[in-house]
Amino acid sequence: MAETITRAQLSEAIYQEVGLSRNESADLLEMVLNEITDALLKGEPVKISSFGSFSVRQKGQRIGRNPKTGEEVPILPRKVLVFRPSQLLKARIRQGHAEAARAQSGTPGASQNAPST
Amino acid sequence: MTKSELIARIAERNPHLYQRDVERIVTNIFDEISKALGRGDRVELRGFGAFSVKHRDSRVGRNPRTGASVEVSEKAVPYFKTGKQLRDQLNGGDDGEGDDDAS
């Protein structure tokens, strides 16, 4: 079943990989997230090769509707963060998904979108 | 900012670390996230956002050039949802609550 990975597991991975203390591993993870956040807040896109890119997009005002009451409400102009996954990340996920589907059905090649790799 | 610029910025702030190690750390973080998504897991970084995998059913698509219809098979795609804190920061506010999403 799908699990949820959090900061704890990511800093544990850093700890295992580089051998810094657990505390320092956690601090470095936080620093990385903060640097990315700072760049984005300055409007600077962040491009991580083989992973994906983050950028900030300005959205104009539009009229929305409360789906429950049907009432019209203005949606104010705002900034949104967009993540565009790299081709590599997309391929990795597609492949993992196809493998899981195959393992589950127990019939190799059951999934029509088996990657050619 | 590119990945190498990110590494340089982190290295600058941690003069006691070798640049090579900072590189490994940064690479490791994104590798772990990719690996988790490859397994179909979700990665939740509170305040920043959450990465997850969304399923797309198979559909009939069209070749935009020829108009021929093609069967697009079912697949899984990565998805990122911005965390509430970051979303608020982007909009210049720290307007506390008001959203049901904690991620």
General description of the model:
The complex is a heterodimer of chains A (117) and B (103). Chain A contains three helices and six strands. Chain A has 117 residues and is of the alpha+beta class. In chain A, strands 2-3-6 form a three-stranded antiparallel β-sheet. In chain A, a hairpin with a 3-residue loop joins strand 2 (46-48) and strand 3. The longest helix of chain A is centred in the N-terminal third of the chain and has 20 residues, at 22-41. In chain A, 21% of the residues are buried. The mean pLDDT of chain A is 88. Chain B is α+β, with helices and mostly antiparallel strands. Chain B is built from three helices and five strands. The chains are: A alpha+beta (117), B alpha+beta (103). Chains A and B meet through strand 1, helix 1, helix 2, strand 2 and strand 3 of A and helix 1, helix 2, strand 1, strand 2 and strand 5 of B. Strand 1 of chain A pairs parallel with strand 1 of chain B, so a sheet runs across the interface.
- Overall pLDDT of chain A, averaged? 88
Task: Give the ordered list of helices and strands of chain B.
Answer: HHEEEEEH
Overall strand count of chain B:
5
Strand count of chain A:
6
**What is the terminal-to-terminal distance of chain B?**
24 Å
What is the gyration radius of chain A calculated from CA atoms?
20 Å
- Low-pLDDT runs of 5+ residues of chain B are 95-103
Biggest sheet of chain A, open or closed, and with what strands and sense? Answer: 3 strands, antiparallel
Major beta-sheet overview of chain B: 3 strands, antiparallel
Q: Hey, which two chains have the biggest interface?
A: A-B, 54 and 51 residues
CA radius of gyration of chain B is: 19 Å
Helix content of chain B: 25-40%
Strand content of chain B: 25-35%
Supply the CATH class of the largest domain in chain B: Few Secondary Structures
List unreliable stretches of 5+ residues of chain A: none
Spatial gap, N to C terminus of chain A: 25 Å
Task: Provide the spatial order of strands within the biggest beta sheet of chain A.
Answer: 2-3-6
